[in-house]
Amino acid sequence: MLLKITNGCIAFGENIVLSGIDFEINKGEKIALVGRNGCGKTTLLKLIVGEYELTKLDNGEVSSIVKSGNISIGYLSQVAFEDETITLEDEVKKAYKDLIELKTRMESLLRELEKKPTGEALTKYSELQERFKLLDGYSYKKEYETAIRQFGFTDEEKDKPLSDFSGGQRTKIAFIRLLLSKPDVLLLDEPTNHLDINAIEWLEKYLKTYKNAVVIVSHDREFLDKTVNIVYEIEWGKITKYIGNYTDFAKKKRIDWETQRKEFIEQQKKIAHLNKFVERFRYKASKASMAQSKLKQIERLDNVKMPESPDTKSFHTNFEPEIKSVELVLSAKDLTIGYNKPLSTISLNIMRGEKIGIIGGNGLGKSTFLKTITNRIPPLGGTFTIGDRVKIGYFDQQMAQFKSGKNVLEEFWDEFPKLTHTQARSALGAFLFTQDDVFKPVNALSGGEKVRLELCKIFQRKPNFLILDEPTNHMDIIGKETLEKILQDYTGTLLFVSHDRYFVKQVASSVLVFESGSVRLYPYGYEYYLEKSETTEQKSNEVKEKKRKKTYTTPAKEKAKREAEIKKLEKSLAECDEKIASLKAEISSDDIASDYVKLTELHKELQEQEELSIYYLEKWNALVDEEE
After folding, report:
1. Domain spans of the chain?
2. CATH code for residues 328-537
3. Number of Cβ atoms within 10 Å of the Cβ of 47
4. Residue-level pLDDT at 551
5. Least C-beta-crowded within 10 Å: which of 332, 401, 479, 607?
6. Mean per-residue pLDDT of the chain
7. Do 452 and 413 form a contact (C-beta atoms < 8 A)?
8. Do 522 and 534 form a contact (C-beta atoms < 8 A)?
């Protein structure tokens, strides 16, 4: 056990956020914390890391949080670098501080061995080398270089100072360092936000092999399915533990709820039957004792409660396009997109009713493509045409940050002045702006609330061509499932960018993939794309392996290097043999037979030379075996 919370309660003033929390982290566990936005997931992470404390209980019950020894807990709460003049690479390498110090000691000792080889130094070097190997010292450089590359940084950017990076990039750099520092407990709050699919897939693989414990808050269902083996759900202020990944949890929760509901109904039927018997016979002398027995039977029943309904409150809408577009909705030919320089070139036709999901790495032009075809930025080359009777509804990532001096009702009504007050309130109510919520200032809304307001406006316009850029970024899982259902039922045309693979899998009938230097359409959805890309990757790996083997079997430079090393070792062995012979002769000399101090020194030196000789001989044997 690394950390255990028993009967935990967290309150801010009179507002109880969480109560009755039983939560445990054990070594190697991969834990997901799931629940609606605002349910207390991040609050629990901050309790674990020590930013919050448990609230004392007034009822006398014990509430505690226990940590095992001096465990290290990693949590990315804010991005602040000690020195912003150092490079990206040097900042990331801080995660390997102990390993780099160990390597420096080894290199120093190796230089000492080359000048004056001693058995003591050799033994120490062997110990350090074994420790370095156990800590994966020979692969740490490859590990951090891979992480830097997968998070979208180039080799040139590795040498840039931290001060040159944007806020989003600085967050990624801090995140890389946190991951690679490998704390005993790694706390990740929405780690896939703003990562492209390549980075997410790398992170999944990294966490799968991560030896320590991980606690993840995420609304990315695919990511959770591939990384966690325990799920804690927070609902209605309580926490429940499930074994398995997210899909296992969702299935088990439905089964448990249905089982408890059936048990409740059956018990109520039984109680009603017993009560009926009691009411019928309790005043009859011959049946009174039996009636009393039935009353006691009712009292002894373990009370099965009707399970609380799951918190599935979400926005809803049933909308159809106002008009039907022509068959060819969008045609692009050699359309070159970008700002100062070209990012990608696209040629495709989008037909009425198609639902195309756009995926790919950051910086390749996915959002730029959407901005270009909606005339927000000009193309750098080529052409595109929008079909007749096409009415576009566009959602941008920046809409979650827009500013307005109006309240929610004013913001909505000003765009749709022909609606009655009742119609406007009804439309907003469908997107969870009810009662006094409509009088909230827009500037006071959360990112998720602003997204709901913008979607409400878009759907009110009844477009027949929806163009959406990361519409789910600020949504919890229930919100994502709601939008999935709306888009699945939508009869118009859909083009959207998303890094949420589960969302793409559920909605897209085709996938447009942006890769470095190319854009390719996979016509049968995300699963088809995966199948094809895995086949391509496998063939590429086979070619690389053949080339690697071919290079290895004819290594002229390696052979020459190995032969030179063998000659060097043979020379060192000969020198060792001469030294050993000389020491043995000196020890056998009558001149020092009675000088015990000198004899002790000589015996020690002889032992060191013999150990050094064995070391050289083992290396020589290994190289000769390779040569053969």
Report:
1. 250-300, 328-537, 556-627
2. 3.40.50.300
3. 21
4. 45
5. 401
6. 88
7. no
8. no
